[in-house]
Every structure is written in structure tokens, then in C-alpha cells.
Known about the structure:
By secondary structure, the protein is α/β, with parallel strands linked by helices. It has 2 domains: about 5-110 and about 235-250, no CATH class; about 115-205, Lambda Exonuclease, Chain A. Helix content is about 40%, strand content about 15%. The protein contains 8 helices and 8 strands, in the order E-H-H-E-H-H-E-H-E-E-E-H-H-E-E-H. It has helices at about 5-15, 15-25, 35-55, 60-75, 90-110, 165-170, 170-185, 210-230, and strands spanning about 5, 30-35, 80, 115-125, 135-145, 150-155, 190-195, 200-205. Strands 1, 4, 5, 6, 7 and 8 form a 6-stranded mixed β-sheet that branches. Strands 2-3 form a two-stranded parallel ribbon. Strand 7 (about 190-195) and strand 8 form a beta hairpin. Helix 1 (about 5-15) packs across helix 2 (about 15-25), helix 3 packs across helix 4 (about 60-75) and helix 4 (about 60-75) runs antiparallel to helix 5. The chain is globular, with a radius of gyration of 19 Å.
Amino acid sequence: MGVFSHSRLSSFEDCPKKFHYRYVLRVPSDTESIEQFVGKRVHEVLERLYIAVGKSRIPSLSQVLRRFQLLWDEHYAAERVRVARPENSVASYRGLGERCLTNYYRRFYPFESDETLDVERRVTFDLDDRGDYRMQGVIDRIVRARDEAIEIHDYKTSRRVPSQDKLDRDRQLALYQIGVARIYGEERPIRLIWHYLLPDQVRTSSRTPDQLKDLRVRTMELIDRIRGETDFETRPGPLCGWCEYRDRCPAFGGRADAHPTTAGNGASAAAPAPAKGTAAARPAPRAGQLTLPLA
């Protein structure tokens, strides 16, 4: 198993069996959750928004919402998008996405408070000096703030905002900081910024060199555990209803022998992660990300 990401690590932590299906056997899934679908459309619109801002063309809020509606209509297919909570209508999820974008637009218009350096930036970096622990990820937006600090911005469509303590221990953006520091300089101040779009809240954190060193060690230890795993046991929990492999999972009466696809015998987690915007690009919802937003 070559290249890892925060999503892959979290998938293993959530359920080794899900990790096994998705990244080792590479069992295909032609569906995605409605939470994933909403999140992808919101991210696509914000990406286009900042591309337009970079060209000095600021769209109106109605244009932003119209773009969201067009993308929704273009990509939505009832047979492919799973709604785990049937009491919540598809229209309500569509409204959720519109509220996320409306809140963000009204908070930051006319988008002059900082300088966008990149959007949807893929970073690849090593945790060690030998290149045995390679990581990758896609950053929603990289910013140069007015005080010249570099900021890593991440958009969340979940309703719940984690505690500051939890964000100060967040792995995803801290790993991104390691990759961003290689690009913009190890001595450059870097801030981690989360946008919780639905409740319209922004959270900020930072990491010391010692904290990043500890993160490297803990992440490499986790990768060693994954590489040494042979059983890939099921780990039933509250997120199982959103798992694309529930029907085949032994914990729910499915068959235990998932078969690899024609992608190749022995296919492993070393294959690159799908690009953002594809059906498999984002993992199933987990705590702190696309978590049951209409609860």
C-alpha cells in the first residue's frame, strides 16, 4: 500500500472491513449518499466562485445559487443517490446546500479580505525522509492573509460544529499543513480554517512544530497497523446506514467474500484517490464532516 490520505486513514479507523472493500479489494460502488452529493455540489460552486473572483468577475448571489441548481440537476439521479433518512426529502437537502452557499456568500462578499493562492489544490508529501510514508490530499482553498500568513481553508456542510479542543487535535488539516509548508516555506506561519457553512461559523487553529512532529509519528504508526492488517474485521456503528457496502457486509447478513474488480488482481490502496467531483472522490460521512445535517 503506497499512497495514503486522511480519508483512507479515517476509513480504516471507522471500519477496517469498509477500508478492505474500498481500498484493497476496490469493490466498486455506483451510489453515493445524499450528504456526499450535497457536499460535492457546494464545493464545486465555491471553487467556481473563487475562480471568477480571481478574474475580477464577482457573480451575484442569485448567479451562485443558479449554478448550484444547474449542477444539482445535471448530476442528480435518484437511483444513484442514497437517502438514509427517508423522512428527509430530497428537496430539503437541496435547500440545505442553498443555505450553505447563501451564508458563505453574505459573510464574505465582496471577497476582498484575503488573496486566494489556489483552489482544490492536490498536495503530495512524505512523512519520513525515505519516502516510505507518502500522503496526499486535496485542499479546498489556500489563502495568503493580510498579515502574510498562509491559511488552509476547508468547507464543511455539517450542522454540528466540533469543540475547539477537537479542532486543535484535527488530523486532516494538520496533515495538509505539512504538505503546504513544503510549498510555501517551513518558516511561514500557517493557520487552519474551517468554514461550517450551515450554522455560518468559522473556526481557526494552528500547530506547533512539536505537534506536527508528533502527528507524523502517530500517522506513520497507523499506516504500519494498516499495512500489517490481515483480518479487516467489521466495526458496526451509527454510520453503517450510510455505508455503500452495507448490503455485502457480514455484520448485516451480507456475504463475506467481496471480489476484486477487473482493476487488477492484488489491487491495493496504493492506487491514487479519485479526483474531487467524481462519485467515489469523497468518503462516506463521518463525524466532523458530512454528518447527518438534517438531524
